[in-house]
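Q: Hi! First time doing this. I have a protein sequence and I read that you can turn it into a structure. Is that right? Here it is:
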Amino acid sequence: MQSIKRTASAPSSPYKHTPIFDENTIPAGLRKEHRTKAGVWGVIRVLDGRLRYHVLDPASETILDPEHPGLVLPDQPHCVEPLGPVRMQVEFYDHLPDPSVPQLGD
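A: Yes, that's right. Below is the predicted 3D structure, encoded as structure tokens:
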């Protein structure tokens, strides 16, 4: 199982992350409208496969893959939909993260 790399010099380290989910174990709550709390940002990291990321307000849709993570803004309604086999994880931050910086490692 992969874990989050945490270093003292990494200002964009998440304070929490979900387990790694696949297309069968993504919780129903992530597949329907939900949101992070005020002051909480998320980064959806796809480890394998593809995931459709729906932002509901303002309406947009993005296909996420290992090279294209999804940024979740605080209190923004959204949901995800697996597009075939997928492995994904969500990281949580108390500040605006840089989603292009990989945080997952061996």
